[in-house]
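look at this one:
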Amino acid sequence: MPGESLFNALEPLLERVNKPIQYVGGELNSTVKDWHVGGHGPGGEELTTRWALMYPDAYEVGVPNQGVMILYEVLNERADALAERTYAVWPDMEAQLREAGLPQFTVDGHRAVRDFDLFGLSFSTELGYTNMLTALDLAGIPLHSVDRDVDDPIVVAGGHAAFNPEPVADFIDAAIVGDGEQAVLTVTDIVGEWKAQGRPGGRREVLLRLARTGGVYVPAFYDVSYLPDGRIQRVAPATDAPGVPWRVAKHTVMDLDAWPYPKQPLVPLAESVHERMSVEIFRGCTRGCRFCQAGMITRPVRERSITGIGEMVERGLAATGFEEVGLLSLSSADHSEIADLTKGLADRYEGTQTGLSLPSTRVDAFNIDLANELTRNGRRSGLTFAPEGGSERIRKVINKMVSEEDLIKTVAAAYGAGWRQVKLYFMCGLPTETDEDVLQIAELAKRVIETGRQVSGRRDIRCTVSIGGFVPKPHTPFQWCGQLGVEETDARLLKLREAIRADKRYGSSIGFRYHDGQPGIVEGLLSRGDRRVGRVIEAVWRDGGRFDGWSEHFSYERWMRCADEQFAAMPWDVDLAWYTTRERGETEVLPWDHLDSGLDKDWLWEDWQDALDETEVDDCRWTPCFDCGVCPQMGTEIEIGPTGKTLLPLTVLGSGRQELLEHQH
């Protein structure tokens, strides 16, 4: 029977696999609704719209994901819908499921994923694509959308990688670009109405209804033609798909206070990568870092109010029992009321073990008062800053407006206030970068250690340098640039490691962590690829590719071999380098041009030219508009405080809980 629990059949397998608890479900605040929660129509038609939501990685990585958690709760609040979660199963469980003839299942009701109406996948990184194919295959859903029938789930991609879904266009039915909260409700309405009508016109009809909204991209309704040299000539709506728009617009939720999710955050049974309750304090970023896709595609900035944040924290802590609150955003210290917010929360939870944390903090937004409020009730951990580029010149190229003196002043304040450990994050392979730019990282780290020793009077000062490889992303000014090759990246990193170790005065105090160039070049292929790259992904998966975001499972050799084989069989002269290290021209049609992030392509090109000229651009939150296109094109605007409101001086232990409840209502 559809919707039946598979747990009795799954249970014997659990003792044969590692970390069986990740497949058990039953977490605090999880939901299992009746399969027929919406009932039936007069003709027996199904009135329940059912979503299986997947973060295509291991449970420990996927369960804290805010995006999936929010959609899970938004959907389950509806009386005519249900949502359950599924995650990528490890290879040992995959083998057990195949041997037992059991499908991909949800962790909530242990129901077969194929029984659901929609299979939604949230991709924060392209390296999860092979895990999607494993899930589809285990679920019994045909890999290619063209082979699916009316009884197969509609496969929907979302998340940041969905801003260029072309590499997986053969495998998905649709993609939702941008914020998902309102979008999934619209999709639920359309699918629910189609089901209530008896599913007229079959699968094609419901996909046409979704595509005609202008906010759901259905790749099957778009034809791609190519020039003889392999570049894209045109992406156009198919002639047999009337009413399908030329461009698909991203979704933007404007009033974040109206969407205070998650209200009941999930508490994992097994250990996860983030053991905390998190609140998104604002969405979007206008700092204009040219490498940062997240900042570009989430414009404009929309702040949650200080009171809205306070209510979410209070409710979330009561619902979870967590002792740490993460104040999340792309640049949390930029919230217009961050000082009042952190002081208010620290006051409210005085006398408890509740600590506050921010993701990596901008050097120019950090101050000791802020840091002290963050650690007042919790533990004092290391501080993380992200200068991104080693030299002043390269930071101008990437528009990361942080000077070396800014960094030294900031770490001096931190070490002087009692911190012993600072982590610095940089990138290697940035446009126009030279060996000298990267070697400046070593000099900067040495200055940080020397400064820390001077202001603290101690020798046990530590600095960890963490290096990530730069991958050009769609919808950024760097979408045209050539990526640094694997050999060049590794050679540059080797020189940097030697420079750090060469000076015995500092070498033992500086930790050095880096990723080699191999995963980055594969991510680059998937980030800026077109539909032809789908054949490479499938070939890698069929060859055993799984969990490509995990170093112990990633095989560069497999990706290179499969890419060479697939590209050699194509009628165009394209290869891995063509997709990664080649620089694009201004007029080239890019695979994602028909997906509208709101950013004007001419503005992005001008910003790319500014980067080459080492010209910096200010943050438009505090300066006149730079005409990137988002606000007028999307009918949106920057929404920032200050609100002038303050947090009520309550504590979870005090008498103010009732007052807070009355304030909320």
User: Anything to note?
Assistant: The two ends are 43 Å apart (CA to CA). Confidence is low (pLDDT under 50) at residues 651-656.
